[in-house]
Specification:
The chain has 8 helices and 18 strands. The protein is globular, with a radius of gyration of 24 Å. The chain starts with a strand and ends in a 7-residue tail after the last strand. It folds into 2 domains: 230 residues, Rossmann fold, CATH 3.40.50; 101 residues, Nucleic acid-binding proteins (OB fold (Dihydrolipoamide Acetyltransferase, E2P), Beta Barrel). Bound molecules: adenosine-5'-triphosphate and magnesium ion.
């Protein structure tokens, strides 16, 4: 078991810098999730930690050792990819034991470790099958088993569940949570899935364009985002934003003139944010219902209003309004977050 520390880590591909000097500490035993838009550098950072990608400058520490220039195979990490990368001609048992066999580990020890991983992942019935005779979820369990067998100090997962269907994802998500509890090993996990991030993480790192926007527990990021980017990224459906204007030192909303807004001085342009579940409908008003998505327990209403305003409302009541109906919105001031429009920083 080990913590992981990144210190001023930079990655350049040729002359293009994609990771811009990241400082980050992942505690021993922590489940840390990297999220961020496509291309922001999640996989690159994970690969730098694993040693599959070199570090242009800065340092990476695992445990107390500086591993910046240590080979991937000597870092004590095991990586699980989105594509399972199993050897097609080997059985499940052979796939799981292959790394140890290459290390010339004694046969008895390999068997013992494979058996233990098999038990944890409930793979007993499949040990003699080849990967092509397994479902996607079973293959991913073998890939995770192969990582467990190596007894790493840190597990690195790069979107391991994104090839699975919704039901299997849920099942594997629960298994991963259980696995983390059982092994207590440090895990770093990249995902696009909000639910995975929110439910699995002790700590979420929000990345954007090669920098860290914010680090915190899922609820910290949800309730107390530092800036508009994090506010809009964490939470699904995403937070709604609308512009406020400053008239004689008083903020006003053209769209919702009846909200008593907080007094904020010194910012000429302010953006307000509100979560879809904090908005309630009123029978009459000037918002148009453009689209209705009924998911059973919850309905998402996509509304548009004047000045090109577009909002999503999470509606949990039984009576669902009609498409193209006009409705009003109830917004409470205490549910609003305020952001400086220029910098995106939370006010
Ligand atoms: N081998 C490479 N050569 C040049 N640029 C690269 C290379 N690998 C990645 N990049 C660039 O580095 C940036 C970060 O890529 P990375 O794969 O880390 O993104 P990501 O956050 O994992 O995205 P996704 O969510 O789509 O997987 C991207 O702009 C990408 O184009
Ligand atoms: Mg990636």
């Amino acid at each position: 078991m080990a913590n992981v520390i990144l210190s001023k880590t930079i990655k350049k591909y040729g002359s293009i810098e994609v990771i811009h000097g990241i400082d980050l500490k992942i505690e021993d035993g922590e489940f840390c999730v990297f999220v961020g838009p496509s291309g922001c550098g999640k996989s690159t950072l994970l690969r730098m930690i694993s040693g599959l990608e070199n570090t242009t400058s800065g340092n990476i520490y695992i445990g107390s050792e500086d591993v910046t220039n240590v080979d991937a195979s000597d870092r004590g990490v095991a990586m699980v990819f989105q594509s399972y990368a199993l050897y097609p001609h080997m059985t499940v048992r052979e796939n799981m034991g292959f790394g140890l066999k290459m290390n010339k580990t004694p046969k008895d020890e390999i068997n013992e470790k494979v058996n233990k991983a098999t038990e944890i992942l409930k793979l007993e019935p499949y040990l003699d099958r080849k990967p092509k005779a397994l479902s996607g979820g079973q293959r991913q369990r073998v890939a995770i088993g192969r990582a467990i067998v190596r007894g790493p100090e840190v597990f690195l997962f790069d979107e391991p569940l994104s090839n699975l269907d919704a039901e299997l994802r849920l099942e594997m998500r629960v298994e991963l949570a259980r696995l983390h509890k059982e092994l207590g090993t440090t895990m770093i996990y990249v995902t696009h899935d909000q639910v995975e991030a929110m439910t699995l993480a002790d700590k979420i790192v929000v990345l954007n364009d090669g920098i860290v926007e914010q680090v915190g527990t899922p609820m910290e990021l949800y309730s107390n985002p530092k800036n508009r980017f994090v506010a809009g990224f964490i939470g699904s459906p995403a937070m709604n934003f609308f512009e406020l204007t400053n008239k004689n030192d008083t903020l006003v909303s053209n769209q919702f003139p009846d909200i008593a807004l907080k007094k904020i001085n010194g910012f000429s342009k302010v953006t307000a944010g509100i979560r879809p579940n904090d908005i309630k409908l009123k029978k009459s008003g000037n918002m148009n219902i453009d689209l209705i998505e009924e998911l059973g327990g919850v309905t998402y209403l996509y509304l548009s209003g004047k000045d090109n305003l577009k909002l999503v409302v999470e509606h949990r009541e039984k009576n669902i309004p009609k498409l193209n109906a006009k409705v009003g919105l109830k917004i409470k001031e205490e549910d609003l977050l305020y952001f400086d429009k220029e910098t995106g920083k939370r006010i």
